[in-house]
Design a protein that fits this description.
rod-shaped
Length: 135
């Protein structure tokens, strides 16, 4: 098991550089791991010297993947990034709005529409209060 550590590290390094679907990646990496099983006793650095750098191997593998699959995978990744940014922006906006509203309430700095009263309403209020006091 310890002998495979270099191979697993190498396969992970190649995997990070592949732009394809999970199914294709799994199939290609299983084949690569089977080919590298002959070098299972070599440490990572010696394996890189013997086989080539993970970048080189990933580039060779990428040559065999269709352009349509690569473009679809890139589009999905971009969509995920955009969705994460949008979720973050909406969350920041909600918390920002809540923070502003909470600060206004704590400072009693929120806006209240005042009702304009007419002279007749004031007279009615005064006579109503006098009537209550007279009782």
């Amino acid at each position: 098991m310890m002998e495979d550590k270099g191979v697993r590290r190498y396969v992970r390094a190649v995997s990070r550089r592949l732009i394809c679907s999970k199914a294709t990646r799994s199939r290609l990496l299983n084949g690569l791991q089977q080919e590298l099983s002959a070098y299972s006793t070599l440490p990572y650095d010696d394996l890189c010297a013997q086989v080539g750098s993970p970048e080189q191997i990933a580039a060779q593998i990428m040559d065999n993947i269709s352009e349509v699959e690569v473009s679809n995978t890139k589009r999905k990744r971009r969509l995920i990034v955009v969705l994460i940014i949008c979720i973050f922006a909406v969350t920041a906006g909600v918390f920002g709005g809540y923070y502003i509203q909470a600060n206004q309430v704590m400072r009693n700095d929120f806006y209240v529409e005042e009702e304009n009263t007419t002279d007749e309403q004031v007279k009615k209020d005064i006579t109503f209060e006098e009537a209550l006091q007279g009782e």
